[in-house]
Amino acid sequence: MEREAMEYDVVVVGAGPAGLSAAIRLKQLNPEWSVMILEKGSEVGAHILSGALFEARALDELLPDWQSRGAPVTTPVCEDQVFLYRSETSAVRLPGFAVPAPMHNDGNWVISLGSLCRWLAEQAEALGVEIFPGFAAAELLYHEDGSLKGVATGDMGRDKHGEPKDGFQPGLELHARYTLLAEGSRGQLGKELIARYDLAAGATAQHYGLGIKELWEIDPAKHRPGLVVHGAGWPLSEHGATGGSFLYHLDERQVVVGLIADLNYANPYLSPFEEFQRFKRQSEIRKYLEGGKRLCYGARAITKGGFNSLPKQSFPGGLLLGCDAGTLNFAKIKGIHTAMKSGMLAAETVAVALQAGDQGRSDLVAYAVAFRESWLYGELHQARNFGPALHKFGTFLGGAFNWIQQNLCGGRMFFTLKDRSSDHGQLAPASRFQPIEYPKPDGKLSFDRLSSVFMSNTAHEEEQPVHLQLLDASKAITVNYREYASPEQRYCPAGVYEIVEEDAGPRLQINASNCLHCKTCDIKDPTQNIRWVAPEGGGGPNYPNM
């Protein structure tokens, strides 16, 4: 079936901070260029989830008058607290001088990234950017010479067998001189482009974490707008895993609480979701949450390999931006300002090409030069050893190393640590471990998966092709079930994967309608047998202000 095609100067995939910043900068440089953004969420911000602590450096450059424009950046950090958690009841608070310098948050802000993206979308539309929410970019389109031509949106109205239903609408083709990919962590199309053009040839393996977050309304007597609490250790340390935690006080009696589990853990019985439920019982955290009300739940993968894992970000016909490439600064635990800067650099690179009469299809290698000459390169380069040190030496020795390299050396070490292992390759056979017995949820601080998914406002059209694809269906039982005790049941934070015991034997059931689009299954499956693809546009979570 022939698809309708639309032509643009630039197409941006993803209305996150990178994509929106790129579109705004393009229109600032030339209002006549046609720029459009595709967003798979039902609205801008629906799929946006981050801590979020915000460094306004890039926003200052993009929209210097953001405060007078009413940007939703209103809660300055008032205090930093960092803890090493030893158990449910024991925690050691680190003095300020013992905390790595990049983790200090003086001058930063506690925000909702979803709200910021909605505001950025308003600024973009005021400049003439066309934004199409509810349309998922599902396919890459190529010219005959192999350069990127654009993207196609997914078909709407196919049944679970892939056959057209009543009201079927074929996808649209969106052609552009240049296409900017800003899908976020483990982007489906970005992953394809990295493989097609071998963009990661000079990089170490990418690394990820799974971030799980809740928004709470708490007792006003316990509320301190701008208080930032970070931590590491328990409960993940009990099972040989690493990661970190956060609790940030927003305004209006709201706090966000979350746990980030590094996805290089070995124990297949580990459940990041259950570890998060345990974490909320820690005495330094529960004292804020007790008596409060949970408002929202969500989860998302975090690209945290940093400088060493960055792929080549240009290819014929386009660029990779933000978390599609992996620009998060792990040492700061921040990626919003870096994603925005990558989008701005991309826009400026494209602008130079278009102004010179470029008709597209080129490999914009000038982006690498602009990147290297920017503060973004310097910031990521100084943080290049932070993640590898934690992976190689663990939380405590790695933390000590990071304190030395950041506080005493400013990140300017004469050597570079590299972690070449893949996260999925670290998972070990279940025979090496004992199953973990997690406590039952109490419905006050801890909850089950299904009630949590309900709090994410997740919705999908039920009668559509399953967007979680098994490349070899037999491996679900012959490998994952028999060797790894079906870890997908536990690493998924939404109850998507379920083993059903039948007379004929065990069967993997995929409850795709629960999917939060976190991409953890695409990352952590031990044989890389699960492929996440975009469902019908508009499906997935509908986060209000995460």
Provide a descriptive summary of the structure in words.
The chain has 546 residues and is of the alpha+beta class. It is 27% helix and 24% strand. The protein has 15 helices and 24 strands. The protein has helices at 17-29, 57-62, 113-126, 188-196, 272-279, 283-289, 322-325, 336-355, 366-372, 375-382, 386-408, 449-455, 475-484, 488-491, 520-524, and strands at residues 5-13, 35-39, 53-54, 75-76, 79-85, 91-93, 109-110, 130-133, 137-142, 148-153, 156-158, 164-169, 173-181, 208-217, 227-233, 243-249, 254-262, 293-303, 314-315, 318-320, 468-470, 497-502, 505-510, 530-532. Strands 1, 2, 8, 9, 10, 13, 19 and 20 form an eight-stranded mixed β-sheet that branches. The longest helix is centred in the last third of the chain and has 23 residues, at 386-408. It is globular. The relative contact order is 0.16.
Total helical elements = 15
Shape: globular
Outline the biggest β-sheet. 8 strands, mixed
Number of strands: 24
Distance between the termini: 39 Å
Cα-atom radius of gyration: 22 Å
Low-confidence sequence ranges = none
Strand % is 15-25%
Helix content: 25-40%
- Give the mean pLDDT: 95
Query: Which class best fits the helix and strand makeup?
Result: alpha+beta
How would you describe this structure in keywords?
546 residues, alpha+beta, 8-stranded mixed beta sheet, 7-stranded mixed beta sheet, 15 helices, 24 strands, 27% helix, 24% strand, globular
Task: Summarize, please.
It is built from 15 helices and 24 strands. The chain has 546 residues and is of the alpha+beta class.
